Amino acid sequence: MSDVNDRPTSVIVTRSAGGGLYVIVGALLALVLVGGYVMLGMPGLNTQVARGPAPSQKIDVTVQQPAAPARR
Known about the structure:
By secondary structure, the protein is mainly α. The chain contains one helix and no strands. The protein has one helix spanning 19-39. The longest helix is centred in the middle third of the chain and has 21 residues, at 19-39. The N and C termini lie far apart (136 Å). The mean pLDDT is 80.
């Protein structure tokens, strides 16, 4: 007795179309978002808050008025 099977065998292969397209679109979207973040000056990373000196330091400011102009 032989193990030969005479019935036809069919293999159906289906491909999902556009799988690579999703990767490309996602990469472009990430590139645009990162580019926009950099173009806007990276908000949140560099704060522009003025800080005063430490409480132990004393600031002395002397303002001198200009001399009165000479009269003719």
